[in-house]
Amino acid sequence: MKTLLKTALMTAAAAGFLGAATLPAAALDDPGPAAYSAALKGKKVMLVPLSMGFDLAQGWTAFLKREIDAFGGTLETRDPNWSAEAGAQAITEAISSAEKPDVLIVMSPDLNSYSKLLKKAQQAGIYVILVDNPANFKADVYTGSDWTQLGRLEAEAVVKGCGEGSSKKIGLVQGDQVNATSLFQYAGIMEVLAKYPDFQVVAKPDSNWDATTSRNVTTTMLQQNPDICGIIDFWDGDATGAAAAIRDAGLQDKVYLVTTGGGEKTADCDRLEDGTYDAVVMTDLAHESSDMVAMIKYLLQSGQAPGTSSAYLYTLLKATTKADLTPGTCWDLQALQALQAAAK
Amino acid sequence: MGFLGSLNQERIVFAIAVAIFVVAALTLPGFFTADNLVAIVRSVSVLGILALGMAIIVIGRGIDLSMVAVMAMSVAWYLQMLGNGMSDGAALGLALAGVVAIGFANGFLVAYAEVPAIFVTLASASFVYGLVRSQLIGSDAVPVPPGHWVAELGALRLADVPVEVFVFAGLALAAFVFLRFTKWGRYVYYAGDNPAAARNVGMPVRPMLVLRYVLSSLVAFAAGILTAGSLQSMNTRVVNSPQLYDIVLVTVIGGIGLAGGKGGVRNVLIGAALIGIMLNAMTILDIPLLYQNLIKSAILLAAIIFDGVLNPRDEQTAQQGDI
């Protein structure tokens, strides 16, 4: 496969070179499309997210499929359904199968689980793109959020939301103590709060990314500290629980709730609109997906061996409040799926 | 040995729960307040409701590992149908029919095909999850339509106490009356203690078994509606969470033996109280989740070992069918 790829790339390069040489005579013969097509046509891309069942994974798939179909490649997805073992198995099978993917896009469940496997994939000649969850592994490229920066933005939002005259007491509802997104988010938050010494974190329980747990720990947190002015919940997937606890305590107007999410309409914008959340640090899905597509196109044409480069393409993050909402702020999963269905 | 000998698992767990409660009330500010006590009961209400359903199954010498899947997937499907614009009556009717069908299938396979309950319900859990997730709903979390009765139910308070607490209390009373005072309820114990003998004296052992699995499925649906009401959505990820183990834990920690024929609603309440008090105290102390799990399992293990030492298994009367 590796040699085949090399031959294809060299042929492509040669074709491009010849094309360039003959350019003045033919005048309109652009060598690009032939080289592009030779490098990309028939290439296989595989996406292994944490699960196919949540907004970001479905959004990525829709964007990727459109682009990959356009250059004549194929996109396959695997659904580990939140299980690290199932994900590892999907990757192992991809590496050992006869029809190896050319590019593997992986969302890692934690810092270490997949590190060895992904190195193996690179050795087998597969480019590896890490998406949204960082890992201790030198991927060809990481596309997604800078989670420390994301934490900083959340902290700034909550400091601003609490305001000067408030109690300056903040609660955190963390995810867990293993996932990089939770650990880096925490680091970013604490870094910013160090700049505001009069603000203090009064409690920082874990939700284990579960909405019911988030509700229970937030209920306790609010009872222990009824004068809390702001709460940061580490994911919109469970922040509905924190929001329910705030609503139950009748403190919607007193507690400023900040969370983060993929910018999907029903998950984020509708919740900002109805006051469930006060600020959401959103990932720009369209740009994140474009970054992935660009890297797929680049890597497949680069001729470099997998594992050569290791770049970080961070997606622009923004803390959005109800006041910033415009019709285009969020993307709509239902509309995207309807579009996909119509294309079929 | 007189006093120690009178300690069985139920009393040990009850004593631990009381001890933690007293220590927490004396040392933790804000623990012994009306609001916090309500929060404790509420935090274990849904778990307790599921454990009541599980208890009826376990006393009849069975186990239902499909409860969490039925809870999450039936309600998610119901909400999805509402979101697609179906009328409430039709959607609720379909969801309930699905729930009863799963309970009936579980019970039928256990009672008539005589497949062990642990395999039947493990398989049906995967089946329900897979079918609903892949064919019937669009994503992991399905929101409750705004203004729907499920959302209003979740916001309902009576004297400042959330509705789950009353539902839990009501179902506990109903389960107590069923197990203690009805003929079929008493039969559950006989069938659980010795199914062959129960059958020989003429009890309808098999139809009763089917009924119990239908009951546990309906209880799961009720627990799901309460969860969705409180969180304004149903997240099906809960199927992959350790919640199922927590249900089994609450059921058996209070002293309902997995071998069947023993225990009652009181044991479930004691188990739920211990878990609720422990989790609440540890959250107030801001102990990270990893340590919470460690502490929780250490206390539970200690209770089981203590019981094992004080009440050794009697090989002559020990039953077949321990799981």
Automatic annotation (TrEMBL), chain A:
Q: Which CDD domains match?
A: PBP1_ABC_sugar_binding-like (cd01536)
Q: Taxonomically, which superkingdom?
A: Bacteria
InterPro entries assigned to the protein according to its UniProt record, in alphabetical order: Peripla_BP_I, SBP_2_dom
Asked if Signal is a keyword of the record, the answer is yes
Q: Pull one GO CC term from this UniProt entry.
A: cell envelope
GO molecular function annotations of the record: carbohydrate binding
Return the protein name.
Sugar ABC transporter substrate-binding protein
Q: Which organism is it from?
A: Paenirhodobacter hankyongi
Taxonomic placement: Bacteria, Pseudomonadati, Pseudomonadota, Alphaproteobacteria, Rhodobacterales
UniProtKB/TrEMBL annotation, chain B:
| One Pfam family it belongs to | BPD_transp_2
Q: Where in the cell is it found?
A: Cell membrane
* Record key words, sorted: Cell inner membrane, Cell membrane, Membrane, Transmembrane, Transmembrane helix, Transport
Which species does the entry assign this protein to?
Paenirhodobacter hankyongi
Looking at the UniProt entry, the stretches that span the membrane are 12-32, 38-58, 65-83, 89-110, 117-138, 158-179, 209-231, 243-261, 268-285
Q: Name one GO cellular component term.
A: plasma membrane
Can you name one GO molecular function term for this protein?
transmembrane transporter activity
Cited InterPro entries: ABC_transp_permease (IPR001851)
Family matches, as CDD domains: TM_PBP1_transp_AraH_like
Specify the taxonomic lineage.
Bacteria, Pseudomonadati, Pseudomonadota, Alphaproteobacteria, Rhodobacterales
The name this protein carries in UniProt is ABC transporter permease
